[in-house]
Structures are given as C-alpha cells and as structure tokens.
Amino acid sequence: TVVYFIARFLTLNLSKNALLAVAVAQILAILFAFITNKIWVFKKAEKAPLLIQFLKFVAARLFVFLLDFFITWLCIEKYGRFFINFFALNHLNYQSGITTFPIISGFIGSPTLANTFIWSMKFLLLLMVVLKLLGRSWLIFIMIVLKSLSQSKKKVEEVHAIWVFGPPKQTLL
Question: Residue range 58-74: average pLDDT?
C-alpha cells in the first residue's frame, strides 16, 4: 500500500495523468509484493519456473488492477470536476495548514490531488468491504483460477480445504 501510494502520487505529480499514475503504481506494487513475498513469505520453493510463478501472481491481482483503473477513469478523469464540486474541494485553502508541507501537498495539495486521494482511499475501503461481505465465497473464484493455472490438483484441494474448513487444528500433545 505504501509503495502504491508513493508511486501513484509521484507519477501523478510528474505526469499529471491519473490513468498513467494508476498503471505505474499498480505495476510497481505488484512487482514489490511478488519480490517481497518470494523472499520472506513463500518459504516453500515452488517447482514451477519463476516466470510461471510471476504470471500466476499477476493473474490473481489483475481484477484489482482493472477495478482501480476503472474507478480512476470514472471518478477522476471523466467526472472529476463533478466530485471536486460535490466534495467542495475547490473551496479549501491549499496554501495554509497541513497542505503546505511538501510531502502532504503532493497527495492533497490541490482540488484534483485531493479528489484523487479520496477515490484512492475509497477504492481500498470498497475492496475491503466487498471482500468482507463476500466472506470466504469470493475465494471460489480464486480457486477456479488456481485450478486452471496449477498443474497440481492436490495443491488446489489443500488450499480449498483450508479456506472451507479453516486451518488445521493443532493439538498440544
């Protein structure tokens, strides 16, 4: 998330293009997540070639990438002026208070940046709410993707069992 926000707003400040900023931020965040997960999280080495592992990783995050891109296009590019007026962002004083700090001004230092920040946060909150409401049932989609991408039916069944029945119970014997 930190990599995503820094990349998104740095790209937005340099390019003034919200869609490019989303694409760059999503790509960098996915690369960062894959590398850090590969080094610290995934302790068991997968037998598949690194490229196949990476493609599976990207496929699992493609929906979020597209959803973020769509929300940015709709709420910032297409109807950005409407939302700036709706949230009264054009009536705020960006020359005083917290928005005068250079780091903060890069995120919310203008009506357009503030609108982008609001929708970035709403996107993350919306994603968390949707996943919470769907509970474990959203994982059925992931299981289908894993099954189609995976050569190992046993691995898919193990992951499915964990999500359906929960993690294995550990006894203190």
Answer: 88
